[in-house]
Amino acid sequence: MKVTNVNLDERIHVLKSTSTFMSVIKEIAESGMQEEAFYVLDVGDIVRKHQIWKEKLPRVHPFYAVKCNDSLPVLEVLAAIGVGFDCASKNEINKVLDLGVDTDRIIFANPAKPSSHIRHAESVGVRLMTVDNESELYKIKRIFPSAKIVLRIRCDSELAQCQLGMKFGCDPVYDAPTLLRLAKVLDLDVIGISFHVGSGCQDPPVYNRAIAHSRTLFDLATDIGFKPYLLDLGGGYPGDRGTSIDVFADVINDSLDQYFPSDDVHVIAEPGRFYVASAFTLATCIHSKRVVRANVNDPDKVTHHMYYINDGVYGSFNCLLYDHQHVTPIPLRPGSGKLVPSSIWGPTCDGLDQVVDNVMLHEMELGDWIIFENMGAYTLPVASPFNGFPIPKVHVVADESMWYVNFYDNMFERNNFTSIFLKI
């Protein structure tokens, strides 16, 4: 990749065999024309994640959670390779529809929807939507009575980055049967059951409990007079570099074989961070530095270095506040000598704008770059230009090897994927 003008509206750069996404980061950072923080998005990482998903969870069709990262290149790639989409608002629905995605590849997976958003879903033909309370059933009956309803139950993981059960999901034993009967009285069409164990789940066996509850409710729905055919496993799947969904897949596949052995039930899930967390790497530059010395009795002894970078918790690192993330700083230039206790701070005037509290680093200087991996999930969608600092630009790259990955269900997906590169 030749860096000529960092202000160019770049699309996808196909890397030569001698290049990597890290070499792209170094070339941009060392070009002398880059002062702001920036991302490099490795499209190949997303494509490989999709291959892993299809190999490990062959019965489960992914509906990507748009809220996790709604960057246009991400949505374009996922749309092209046939992934469905979990949308939470009319704006997210519109973003996906603008890419030419069919409405049957969208689930309106927000159990508490504004009336105007339900009306919009009806107007564009998005019929599949989740519900977890009586009020929502009455609302849908009034606004969109022909909607296809998925009842969302609560089954919380004890270990998750973000718990969701305190806000969404009805009790599968006490509330769900009542809601199914009410839906029947209202002449609504309940076509399935969904759950979400929590974002960033670290408790794979919870999927077995949730699928077991879903089986019970499928049977009850059938007895009441519905014809359920959709099971939505929600999200929670890890996506950082070095993580694996193997244990999750083992639990889910075994549970599906036990409780839903027939192929007449369509199984979907709502992965977010799995697809994008490791695909984004953030590069930040040190623009200021403060040396903290011991005390008046030993004024020459340095006890701490404070580094100020050009992105912070009001920008990409909002994930520290909202997603309970832990980030690891990686100096772009290898250091040497003694390691010094250090902290890393964002660029704003807010004292809460701290990225890393305490880390041992070799001494760095103004203009040095610090890299942060696994920055694709719940970062850019929430970033703001607070204090006038810009949201980092995304440089999109793809390695040639992805062209030899054979996971497409049909030639239409392959042609769609190829067409993205024609926009370069």
TrEMBL record:
Pfam families xrefs: Orn_Arg_deC_N
PROSITE patterns: ODR_DC_2_1
Lineage: Eukaryota, Metazoa, Ecdysozoa, Arthropoda, Hexapoda
Active-site positions on this chain: C349
Top EC class, one word: lyase
Cellular component GO terms, alphabetical: cytoplasm
GO MF entry, a single one: ornithine decarboxylase activity
GO biological process, alphabetically ordered: putrescine biosynthetic process from arginine, via ornithine
Protein name (Swiss-Prot/TrEMBL): ornithine decarboxylase
Record function comment: Catalyzes the first and rate-limiting step of polyamine biosynthesis that converts ornithine into putrescine, which is the precursor for the polyamines, spermidine and spermine. Polyamines are essential for cell proliferation and are implicated in cellular processes, ranging from DNA replication to apoptosis.
Residues modified as N6-(pyridoxal phosphate)lysine: K67
UniProt xrefs under InterPro entries: Ala_racemase/Decarboxylase_C, De-COase2_N, De-COase2_pyr-phos_BS, Orn/DAP/Arg_de-COase, Orn_de-COase, PLP-binding_barrel
Family: Belongs to the Orn/Lys/Arg decarboxylase class-II family.
Domain Orn/DAP/Arg decarboxylase 2 N-terminal: 44-277
Quaternary structure and interacting proteins, as annotated: Homodimer. Only the dimer is catalytically active, as the active sites are constructed of residues from both monomers.
Catalysis: reaction(s): L-ornithine + H(+) = putrescine + CO2
EC number(s) per entry: 4.1.1.17
Cofactor(s) the protein requires to work: pyridoxal 5'-phosphate
Annotated source species: Trichogramma brassicae
Pathway named in the protein's UniProt entry: Amine and polyamine biosynthesis; putrescine biosynthesis via L-ornithine pathway; putrescine from L-ornithine: step 1/1
Top-level lineage group: Eukaryota
Keywords associated with the record: Lyase, Polyamine biosynthesis, Pyridoxal phosphate
